Amino acid sequence: MIIAVDGPAASGKGTIARALARHYGLPHLDTGLLYRAVAARVLAEELDPTREADVVAMCDFDESLLESAELRTDHVGRTASVVSAHPLVRAALLQRQKRFAQQPGGAVLDGRDIGTVITPDAEVKLFVKATPMIRARRRYDELQRHGVETTFDRVLADIRARDDRDSRRSEAPLRQAADAALLDTSFLSIEAAVQKAIALVEARRGAAG
Ligand code: CDP
Fold it and tell me: Which atom of ligand 1 is nearest to the CA of 166?
């Protein structure tokens, strides 16, 4: 079974995808990390993230880079959202994601275009969302816990800018696939969101079988 989980920043999609992978014993790929890895290399080489050809040259990175804690920083996340808008960068990372999805037994992938572009035939597709205010609050709390100096307003502005860039780009924009089940986590605890996600997967499987 392939489970595709898409949604905007801090919607809870990563947590839900990891929990589903555990629950069903499937391998999981956080596809945002691939774009973050490219972004980290662009920053390390001091390249301009808006220059597509330069960024494409950074797409053939070593798998071990995905383990790096540096990928989780906000700066890398912002740059990831810029480099991911380039069609040639998305094309360079496509096969890697498709291969992961096609492994025997299935997989869980989370990102922005999993249900629409990477695995349009996935048995189960979830689109996870929450209001920008609530997502900004979650991200802000998380940054506070990690001792990062910032303000709520900055985090909210960043979330809105990222939503805007991810939804407006011409190539693989963030949008809900027509056959994806919607999961709004705005007023759900992590535990409740995961339970609801499992229930949605079961309902889809039941419908398919
Ligand atoms: O959850 P958060 O937005 O903080 O980070 P992420 O999921 O690691 O994604 C970082 C950036 O990569 C996003 O803002 C997207 O622009 C991009 N991305 C994408 O374009 N397609 C994907 N399948 C996953 C991420």
Answer: 16
